[in-house]
Amino acid sequence: MALLYELVWRLLHCLLQLQRAAAAWFRGRVWRRGGRLWRTAGAALLLPETLGFSSQKKTAKPRRYRWVADGKALEKLPLHVGLLVVEEDQQYTDIASLVVWCMAVGISYVSVYDHEGVFRRNNSRLMEEILKQQQELLGSESCKYSLEFLNNGTDQHVLTCPTVVKVLSPDDGKLSIVRAAQQLCKAVEQKERTSKDINVTVLDSLLRESKNIPDPDLVLKFGPVDSTLGFLPWHIRLTEFISLPSHKDVSYEDLLSALRCYAACEQRLGK
Question: What is this structure's pTM?
């Protein structure tokens, strides 16, 4: 009986060894086949290069070309864009980027306004940031663009201009109307004018520091306040306003979307 148990035990032991050997052989076969599959897949992926059809890296065109193309693709492009900031914390870099993008798509005049006059008081800082962003965003192409900065009615020529940037404050809005009215009243008082001489044309000439700058076609308002907060009340009778949530972290796509919206709008001009 003991001999029978020993034979059964040896048989089971042999069967276990055979099972382990078969499992090892099977794993090896699967691994080798898998390796061949991976090598075959890799060869298929590399086949175009082997046959000489490797895709050549295209030299990426400067972003300037895309911006120029976007501007030309619009049905109409505003000649003068106003950037109206009604937020408490003004970001110079973001506003400077907007100015450079406007310049790149072909906008000739850009006005920057905040109701507290922060940008006006820090005019030099904003202009330095615009020149910095011009270099960063346009790179070597920045030399193909030039700016002219206007400040308080006096020209500050930085380079020969196709783009004019003007920084505005509340002094350019309602207060300018008050000053113009006072000037007319003083002229009448001093017999330089009569009351019959006062009309819209005369007032308009007093309110325009430079006749070469057109009224804004489009104003982008940044912030939650539904008000122009004194932005050039005399000059915006035909201006289209588009509101954006914030000027902070604004993107080129945000600007392009606003320009497309403007291009699609129908201006009836009082009809």
Answer: 0.67
